[in-house]
Amino acid sequence: MSVLVIAKHELLANAKRKEFVLITLAFPLFILIVFSSSMGVILSTFGDVKAGFVDKSGLLSSDEIGEMDKIVESVNAGDISKKSFKVILVRYSSEEKAREDLIKGRIDGYYVIDENYIDNGKITGYTKKASPHPARILEKKLVKAMLAGKVDDRVVKRVVEGSNYEEYKVGAKGEVEERNFMSFIIPVGFAVLLLTSILTSSSYLLQGIAEEKESRIMEILLSSVTAEELLFGKLLGLGLLGLMQISLWIAIAFPLAASFAILSPSVFVIALAYFILGYAFYASLISCIAAISPTLKDAQQMLGFVILPLIFSMMFGEIAAVNPSSPISMLLSYLPFTSPIEMPLRFAVGQVEGYEIIISVLTLVASAFITVRIASKLFGLFALSYTKPKIGDVLKSLRSSGTSQ
What we know:
Layout: H1 2-15, H2 18-44, E1 49-55, H3 62-65, E2 70-76, E3 84-91, H4 95-103, E4 109-113, H5 117-120, E5 123-127, H6 133-147, H7 153-161, E6 168-170, E7 176-178, H8 182-214, H9 217-221, H10 227-259, H11 265-292, H12 296-315, H13 317-322, H14 327-332, H15 339-349, H16 354-382, H17 391-404
Parallel strand pairs: 1-3, 1-4
Antiparallel strand pairs: 2-3, 4-5, 6-7
Helix pairs in contact: 1-10, 6-7, 8-10, 8-11, 8-12, 8-15, 10-11, 10-16, 11-12, 11-15, 11-16, 16-17
């Protein structure tokens, strides 16, 4: 019963923290703003383009371009947007005239086809509005002009248009899903949310224990409950707090992910499971630090060594997103220090076998159980200690505690 009372207190007290409310509400908004801004920048490059070209090679005759010496093509932005736009290319007789119109804003850029294009393939662009499409369109027209009358029209068409490449992701049960730009962005962003929630909950635990030791409130608390009850109550309360936070973020992220048909509900189930286990593991490690640290400053100095693996797993998140079956990604998804981030990320972007999840979960469960046991022993031994013990003394005390039991 004492554990539940402590858990309720920790949950309610920390849920009212201004910084918790700010992180919980503002962080998804921050991610959304960054995401929307980056998408806006990307999509801004996909708009109608009017450019000129100067053909010094003489390959593009009026027959190739049209009577008006103007090329007009419709281009699709691809995966990022269903939006289509026009690229208009107008022939200029000289670079001077094209540059004059560029300076006056009549065109967005102009392209000069080298007179020795057949030998060097050189096209030089001068632009105000960056876009790769005009040069690609000119290249296709040049290829068509060079092959005209020399090979079959179907061959010309295939060379000009290139391959029609599509890529699909095959799931563990053989289901087929289309890959696109968002299949990389959303899982990585989701991993950031998971990392943030684990660190937020664990940091509150560290701060709470350290402050209670410094203010001697710990002595009053331990006169009413045991050290183990106090620790388990804190772990449960702050774990529920983190679960509420990540659940809210998932509720916000799911419609976005579903709108792109990227993430299935099973991804969110896996993420929640790894959050719970990851929190238990890291919170226990942080409890060990808090138990043997006489002040908050001492505890914070040691905290970096604990959270470094989580940061490390995010650094290698790109590898998991691009190649989830790589040896380094697989190894990191098994290690308890990195699996809470790495395995949900791998699961979201690629095929993960059932046995891999079982091995990873069992390893994390065993590690969390062991660290909780160690944390409870250290908490009982050093909760009322106001001097920083040496590592040798800590290990000796653990062995003595284990032997006495």
